[in-house]
Structure formats: C-alpha cells, structure tokens
Write a structure and sequence with these properties.
single chain; 75 residues; alpha+beta; three-stranded mixed sheet; 41% helix; 20% strand
Length: 75
C-alpha cells in the first residue's frame, strides 16, 4: 500500500513532495510510481525546497495538470 502526499481522485493526479531522501530510496520510489501509474494516476514530483521557494510555480503546474486555468477564477 502506498500513501501519497496529496491526491485528487477525480482527476487521477498525485502530488509528491520529495525531501532529502538518500538515493537508496530511488528503487522504492520507482516501484511505487510504476504501480500508481498502472492504477491510472499521473504523478507530479516537487523537491521540498522548490515548493518553499516557488509556491506560485508549483500551484501553476498543479492547476495545469488538472486542466484548469491559473490563477483560479473567482466568481
């Protein structure tokens, strides 16, 4: 069983935040990503420091992956 950081089931999108894990975790990450992709999910990966320094860029990438416009329109 894999537990993603963030998931949108409706759009089959997973957002994964990558910390400073050692390269030894790479095989596990690849196995997990392959399994999730086989279940129909798309996976976006962001380094933790990128999220902290470029929140707008991360949000824009997520919105684009969801097929929505950026910035979100308010009614």
């Amino acid at each position: 069983m894999y537990i993603p950081d963030f998931v949108c089931y409706e759009r089959r999108l997973i957002v994964k935040l990558d910390g400073g894990q050692p390269a030894a975790n790479r095989a596990y990450d690849e196995e997990r990503d392959a399994w999730l992709a086989g279940q129909g999910f798309r996976i976006l990966r962001f380094p933790d420091n990128y999220v902290l320094t470029n929140v707008d860029g991360v949000l824009e990438t997520i919105w684009q992956a969801l097929g929505e416009g950026w910035p979100p329109q308010t009614p």
